[in-house]
Fold these 4 entries.
Entry 1:
Amino acid sequence: MTELPAPIPTEGVWTGEETDLPNWDAIPRRNRRRKRRAPYPPWLKYLGACVALAMILTAAQIAFHAVRSDPRDATVYATRELQLSVLRPNEKVLATVSVWQRPAIDYFRATRGLLVLADAPGDTAHPIGGRLIYLGLQPRDPLSAPDSPPTFDERSWPVDTAVTVTRGRTFFWIARALRITAPREHLTLGVPSGAAANASALDAALQRKYASLRAEGWRRRELRRARDRVASALLYDGRREWYHTVRRGEALASVARMFGTTPEAVRALNGVTGDKIRIGQALRVKGWTRQPVPFPPGVVPENAPPPSPAAVPPTR
């Protein structure tokens, strides 16, 4: 009776005999079990999870203490500061909206305050008076005394076409915002959800101001064009030829004196010899000049008279 072959050991169990080990060279490559190794040690994964959890807890704690450390009502403080020291005697408030600002360097401690549109009489530089005022209550320093006076971030812009206010969103599109763009400044102010109606009212009042400003600009432009046309006409009248129709009682010397010239110059311009002139005669008292000459006081020179019928050549 032949001996039976030794039984194959169960998978994962080794009897200790080297003969029980599989012949890896004989097994096809696709059937080999590969020993999977992690790209990083397991302890590094747990360390990263702990660090992330600590960062989340720290951020939550900072935000919680930031809210508790400044329980002041920013709207009350900003309104009082606005009425006492910011508004000028000739200004009145048209619209007000509560806003907030979170600087990147101190994100969890927001600066809350008011954005105000004030109206005022216009002047030469700003024909449509008024200005846009931002008054923000800065967060209280945790190391300062509880009764320390509040500090404000105060900024103002005139109602001008160089300053625009547009609606938008804050960082990551979390809340509504108003973007103020000035020649040298850009400011984004968040608007609470409860103040959306006030923000719309402020935007509408500001658009009415801009419409009045454009209308005033068009009116000034037309006045400037009219003055330019008058100046051009005066320039032409000062350079063109001047004529005068002789009236009863006038002589050649009196006509020359009237226009600030001499009788000799009048004779040379009209080809007259002597001082004899007749009523109704058109005398040329000034020829074309390169530089404009102002009108004599109390006298308006006439234009060139129409040609007489005798001077007009007959038409065929």
Entry 2:
Amino acid sequence: MIVSKNHKKLERLLLFYEVAQHLSFSKAAEHLAISRSYLSQQIRSLEQDLQTQLLIRTTRKVRLTTEGHKVFVQAQAMHHGLLDLERELEHSGDKVAGILRLTAPAAFADSFLADVCYQFSQRFSEVSFEIDVGHHLEDLHERNFDLAIRVTTKPPENMVARKLMPYCHWVVASPEYFSANGQPTQPSDLANLQCLAFPSWRNWQFVKAGKVEEIEAKGQFAVNDNNILIKAALNHQGVTRVPEHLLWKLVREGRLQRVLSDYQVEQRQVWMLYPPKIEHSSRLQHFVAFLQQYLSQVRP
């Protein structure tokens, strides 16, 4: 009887963790793929088990009580422990097989990851992939990812962080646009051209010999998507500045032309992040090495 009660209590603690994470019964129920009524019933039973109120419920939102926050911390540790255990067991053994769960920014996934995963699976046919496209610095303890590709200046301390590649932004336009409007030889020349930029990122910084120069990118077209900016540049609408790896092929083919290459423009670092528990995973190690080799071959 005690074992049975503990079993139900553990289940209810993990359900409570999801509600506390989302601060919403509806969102937690959707995430768990269970009914809201069942979830609500289990949380009420947990409060009865613990003989304390864990949540303050209103018609619009849910808040944790002081006791609820204490329970949440313990439930979070349980959740992390289960994820770590699952990862460790999934990645045990020397065989290169099983699922690799990856998360990466959309631009990186589109430019490299789809092809890398395909080529890797041709060599290791028993490995399959699940890819989540996103930009947030996920806590891999919270979500079940094996490897995160992220652009950041501060990798999380609770993850193994390895540099994947540096990159900067290139300033480009179509040869036809430059032929009609002239090529800039210094950043200030961009004031005379149509600049295609993010609406919230019009201040373009250029560095040369340690000196920083900043200009305001002015133009008639702005959008918060790099691929659309590139399409506009290909349509001869103006000059844009986007991450270099999105432009390697287009510049190599001569469809876009790079200018101001003697300046450093918005340098960044791409990192690989993964949980310490699976650092020695055979399939993860093989994939990381394969990804590094692939990128070394496609860089100009």
Entry 3:
Amino acid sequence: MEAIDFKALQEFIASYKNKKVLLTFHSMADTDSVSSAFGLARYFSNARIAAPDYITANCRRIMERLGFGENLISKEFDAGADLVVLLDVNNFEDCGVFMKELERFKRTILIIDHHTLSKVEKENVVIFNDESYNSTASIVYQLIGGSVKMDKKLASMLATGIISDSAEFKNAFPKTFIQIGELLEAGKTDYTSLLQEIQHPAAPETREGFIENLFDSNIKIINSMLMVYGKADVHANMLADDGIRIGADVSLFYTTSKNELSFSARLRPPLDKTHKIHLGKLMKGLSPIIGGTGGGHPCAAGAYGPKKENKDKFLNAFIERISSV
């Protein structure tokens, strides 16, 4: 693995500008990872985007509202690419079904990420990993801003990626605010309007259900942290977000469908650093309990699988892990 600085990153992507490039990201892709891929796809002349599996419902809704169709994202790993760019993740383990493909890939793999650095034991990996950015979309915007036409659609997409990973700007740096200002101007929009795209106020009936679910949820103090958890009738991810907004330190909510059990977890920054909790790793580690997969970021993650009968086992295991940090 070779680590490079920003200038070297600029030179590196320029050398592949007209070559065949595959852009991909972590399992259960969020708005930051997907918007970063759309940004870089505009830079390269022959790029394709592929997702290892699920794209979050909120990201899919933002894509639809901004005019980025799901047909633009493949589910097939292109082993014939000259370069694979791995966005918003710095290891292969969190890349779902693409993990084996990445391990087998012989040409160069470029990683662009902003999380705590992981070491990839593979000689063909080049990595730019900088925690001074709040999001991968922030890195990509700085990387391509002067090289591509930043139209309204792309500017808004990149801005949603930066905002969505900012935890309402609790996770932000001076450059974050500068970039958001530039992207709002390029997107011919304002912050409140863009926030509507991200937060998407649900129908009154749905919000009524959210409130009822919150009232019915369980609350306990674990390891000096306030945790709220329970069932969500719909959109466990949104209810998990709401749990943090109303004052919880940790939230975990689940939904059940005909074939699947799905969990969404959130953690209030900077508890990931002070308590050394990485929800993405935690949810991935627990996902075999429900026979599925999981992953995500230090403060936002999910897991899903078909073994609905193991709901309580998963909940108890999650609480036990939080208790032990």
Entry 4:
Amino acid sequence: MVTINDIAQQAGVAKSTVSRYLNGGSVSQKTKDKLAAIVAETGYRPNTFAQSLKAKKTTIIGTIIPRLDSYSANEVLISIDKGLREKNFQLLITNTNQDSKREIESIYSLASQKVAGILLFATVITEAHKKAIADVAIPVILLGQQADDLYSIVHDEYDAGYKIGKYATDLGHKNFLYLTVFEADVAVGKMRKKGVLDALNESKETTIELVETSFTFEKAYEQVIKMLPNVTASYIICATDNIALAVLKAAHQLKIVIPNVFSLSGFGGYQITTVVSPTITTVKYAYQELGEIAVKNLLLLLEGLPVPKKTILKNKLIENESTKRLN
């Protein structure tokens, strides 16, 4: 791997001269031409991260994610990484394992590493989050969650929930089990749930059982496999596709046939929901678009230009094999 020392030795100049050239500093035209030729010949690529730490204006964007195994976060990250690379920015990722304290620590940590801005996939937004964002004094955009006076890009969670609830009652179902998550997660635990419940309650004589479970597949599966033998609902609505996949696995283990025994749906539009059997009815979210808008808005903020405080993305109901109409 070619280093800055190699370039300096080959050009017969000091390392500091090469550094000035690479950072756009004052270098004679003759030396500049010589260095340009050597850099092109050797294929040398400067360390963007190291340069950013030294520069007043950095090209590193920090991203805080909730889990390394999150399908939704990874889909957005692919889009973010692509967008940033096209604009010659680098992506620095930190994982929090859905620990809100680690999210706050990561905000301060990334700022101390002189990132230009932060994209935050927060699990919750607390006063401590708001204080940290104010303290670091660099642009921060929330992804998937929202808070007053903070920049955010969110999915229309209420609409997504309402779509599934209305779809389920239109199929003739009356008896429901809704597997939700903790309410501290406002997007999924409150807004999505409210949409579901409002739609279900518009239909007469519905019964709804609410059970809180985990975002993680393994924990949800451990809980669900104990519950399913006693479930009487004709339709199980899951707060995420991950939870729906856990229900599907448990049903297979217990030899429960879906949708003959009960219908099943989730949220997210994960690709795997189209390859399992039965394929799972879901609401597909605009993950790629979220990443594209996140990059666009953050770079505008870095230029001191205005962007909307909140951007709301649409979603689409995808009907698959896991649901059926009741006679």
